[in-house]
């Protein structure tokens, strides 16, 4: 485990009570395209679901890592252990002791606390890796994501970024 905020973080497998966060692989694209296929998931962020081929291309870029050596791209798929299936993703972009995080859980698996559990596991890993500050940007009308952020220890700020509220927590 990396212990300084300036070190390059590399995602490993993370386990929570019900979930395993697996480092993203290109081979996850086909299953994840089905998990993320509901257009409603894009209601607050725009766009449309990726095809398996487009998601594979996106995952190739993410797995290759940031072109900036001072920035770590950390991406996981979320596996619901008792069902042995992928149900979503969590990610962190880390630079200079600050991590910007995001999460998405497929529609069929929402309202079960999965996003909260995954976000808490991610934040715990980031803290152990020396990250001082965790940030998420959430659409002001997205009550479910706001609830996840709050349950994961983030607080809303007065700062807006591209129309989204900055949620933040000092973690170090």
Give structural notes.
The chain is of the alpha+beta class and 172 residues long. It has a single domain, classed as 3-Layer(aba) Sandwich (Aminopeptidase). Helix content is 26%, strand content 33%. The protein has four helices and eight strands; from the N terminus they run ββααβββαβαββ. It has helices at 29-35, 52-64, 114-128, 143-151, and strands at 14-15, 19-23, 71-80, 85-95, 98-105, 133-138, 155-161, 164-170. Helix 1 crosses helix 2 and helix 3 (114-128) packs across helix 4 (143-151). The chain starts with 13 loop residues before the first strand and ends with a strand.
Fill in the keyword field for this structure:
single chain, 172 residues, alpha+beta, Aminopeptidase, eight-stranded mixed beta sheet, 4 helices, 26% helix, disordered N terminus
Strand content: 25-35%
Series of secondary-structure elements, N-terminal to C-terminal = EEHHEEEHEHEE
What is the count of helical runs? 4
Q: Multimeric state of these chains?
A: single chain
Low-confidence stretches: 1-6
End-to-end separation: 16 Å
What would CATH call the architecture? 3-Layer(aba) Sandwich
In short:
The protein is α+β, with helices and mostly antiparallel strands. The protein is built from 4 helices and 8 strands.
Give the arrangement of secondary structure elements.
Elements: E1 14-15, E2 19-23, H1 29-35, H2 52-64, E3 71-80, E4 85-95, E5 98-105, H3 114-128, E6 133-138, H4 143-151, E7 155-161, E8 164-170
Parallel strand pairs: 5-6
Antiparallel strand pairs: 1-2, 2-3, 3-4, 4-5, 6-8, 7-8
């Amino acid at each position: 485990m990396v212990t300084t905020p300036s070190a390059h973080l590399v995602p490993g497998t993370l386990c929570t009570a019900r979930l395993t966060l697996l480092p993203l692989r290109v081979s996850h694209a086909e299953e994840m395209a089905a998990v993320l296929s509901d257009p409603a998931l894009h209601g607050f962020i725009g766009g449309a679901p990726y095809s398996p081929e487009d998601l594979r291309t996106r995952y190739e870029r993410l797995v290759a890592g940031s072109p900036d050596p001072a920035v770590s791209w950390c991406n996981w798929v979320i596996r619901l252990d008792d069902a042995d299936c992928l149900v979503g993703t969590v990610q962190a972009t880390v630079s200079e002791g600050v991590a910007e995080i995001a999460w998405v859980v497929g529609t069929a698996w929402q309202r079960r606390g999965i996003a909260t559990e995954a976000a808490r596991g991610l934040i715990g890993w980031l803290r152990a890796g020396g990250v001082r500050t965790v940030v998420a940007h959430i659409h002001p009308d997205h009550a479910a994501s706001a609830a996840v952020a709050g349950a994961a220890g983030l607080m809303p700020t007065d700062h807006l970024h591209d129309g989204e509220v900055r949620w933040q927590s000092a973690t170090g």
